[in-house]
Design goal:
single chain; Transferase(Phosphotransferase), domain 1; 2 domains; five-stranded antiparallel beta sheet; two-stranded antiparallel ribbon; 9 strands; 14% strand; Protein_kinase_ATP_BS
C-alpha cells in the first residue's frame, strides 16, 4: 500500500479487507516475525467522521488492558493520512451469530458467555475503566473452529466509549446503546447519586443475559423516550412460557444485575460468586424455550448494520486462505518459534 507507514510495512504483511466502517477499514494481516494472524484497523484521518480525541481515548484505554477475555491491541503505527491499529484477530463472530447458529442454546452456554464478560469487567473495573457499551455486538468468540480450544472463549471488544476515571470519581456523559443503558446514564441526577460509575456495565450485561435466556429484552418500545421511561422505572418480569425452562438461580442473578439503585446492584466480583456462575446447577444444560431461536434471529437482523467493522466475523473464504498460505510460505520464522 503506497504511503503506508514504513514500520508497519517492515513488521506486517497487510491483506484483504475483512470489515469496513464510517472512517476505517479492517484488514487481515500477518506478523512477519512469527506468522501470527492479526487484524489491522486502518483509520482515515481525512474522513469528516474521524475524531482524533475519540480514537486517542480508545488507544489509551486499550494500552492498559491485558486480559484473555478482552480483544488486545498489539501495535500502533501512524503516517500523514492514516492511523493503523494492529489488534488481536477474532474469527468466531458475535455472541448473536453463535446463538443463531446453534441448534440448541442452553443456560450453560449463556453462563459461559456471562462468566467471560464478567471476568473482563472485573479486570477493567479494577483498572478504573468503564466500558459503557456492553451489548451482544461487542461480545465476540475468539475462534470459529469447533476443534479449537478457543472456540468457546468470549472476548470483549470496541473500547470507543470506554473511559478511565479515578477512585470516587463519576461520569456524566450520556452515551451507550439505548436498549442497554443503565438508568443512571439516562438521568445522572437520580436520587441514588450524582453521575454514574462502573456499575453501568453490570446493568448492560444483565440486559444481555436476559436476552440470551429468552430471546427478547426486558425493556422494549419503538419510542426511545418511552423506552428510557421504562428503564428508569426498572420494572420487568419473566413471562411464561418463555422463562418456564429457565432456572430460578439464573433469574435471581438477572434480578440482582438489573437493580435501578446502582449502589445495590451486584459488582463483577459478586456476580462471579453468584451460585448460577460459580456452581453449575442441574438445570444449566436444559434447552431454552422453542421460540428462543426465532427471537434471536430477528434481533441479529435488526442489529447487523451497527456492528463495528473490527468486530465482524471473519469467514475464511478461499481468497483469504490462499493469501495467508502464500505469505507464510515466504516468511522468515525464528528457530525458537513456529508459524501459528
Amino acid at each position: 500500500m503506497f504511503g503506508m507507514d514504513a514500520g508497519l510495512r517492515k513488521d506486517y504483511d497487510m491483506g484483504p479487507a475483512i470489515g469496513e466502517g464510517s472512517f476505517s477499514i479492517v484488514r487481515l494481516g500477518i506478523r512477519r516475525s512469527n506468522g501470527e494472524n492479526v487484524a489491522i484497523k486502518v483509520i482515515d484521518k481525512k474522513s469528516i467522521k474521524f475524531k482524533d480525541n475519540v480514537v486517542q481515548r480508545e488507544i489509551a484505554t486499550m494500552k492498559l488492558v491485558d486480559h484473555p477475555n478482552c480483544v488486545m491491541l498489539y501495535d500502533i503505527y501512524d503516517d500523514s493520512k492514516h492511523k493503523y491499529l494492529v489488534m488481536e484477530l477474532v474469527t468466531g463472530g458475535t455472541v448473536m451469530d453463535r446463538v443463531v447458529e446453534m441448534t440448541h442454546f442452553t443456560e450453560k452456554d449463556a453462563a459461559t458467555v456471562t462468566t467471560h464478560v464478567l471476568r473482563a469487567l472485573e479486570h477493567l473495573h479494577a483498572l478504573g475503566i468503564t466500558h459503557r457499551d456492553i451489548k451482544p455486538e461487542n461480545l465476540l468468540y475468539k475462534s470459529n473452529d469447533p476443534l479449537s480450544p478457543d472456540y468457546n472463549t468470549v472476548k470483549l471488544a470496541d473500547f470507543g466509549l470506554a473511559k478511565f476515571v479515578g477512585v470516587d470519581e463519576t461520569m456524566k456523559t450520556t452515551c451507550g446503546t439505548p436498549g442497554y443503558v443503565a438508568p443512571e446514564i439516562i438521568d445522572p441526577k437520580m436520587p441514588f447519586g450524582d453521575g454514574y460509575g462502573p456499575s453501568v456495565d453490570i446493568w448492560s450485561l444483565g440486559i444481555v443475559l436476559y436476552i440470551m435466556l429468552c430471546g427478547f429484552p426486558p425493556f422494549l418500545h419503538e419510542s426511545t423516550a418511552v423506552l428510557f421511561q421504562l428503564i428508569r422505572k426498572g420494572e420487568f418480569d419473566f413471562p411464561t412460557p418463555y422463562w418456564d425452562a429457565v432456572s430460578s438461580d439464573a433469574m435471581d442473578l438477572v434480578s440482582k444485575m438489573l437493580v435501578v439503585d446502582a449502589k445495590s446492584r451486584l459488582n463483577a466480583e459478586q456476580c462471579l460468586d453468584h451460585p448460577w456462575i460459580s456452581v453449575s446447577g442441574p438445570e444449566a444444560g436444559r434447552t431454552l424455550h422453542s421460540s428462543h431461536h426465532a427471537f434471536m434471529l430477528i434481533r441479529k437482523l435488526q442489529i447487523f448494520d451497527n456492528v463495528d467493522p473490527a468486530c465482524m466475523q471473519v469467514r475464511y473464504c478461499l481468497q483469504w486462505k490462499l493469501w495467508i498460505d502464500e505469505k507464510k510460505g515466504c516468511l522468515f520464522v525464528p528457530q525458537s518459534q513456529e508459524v501459528s
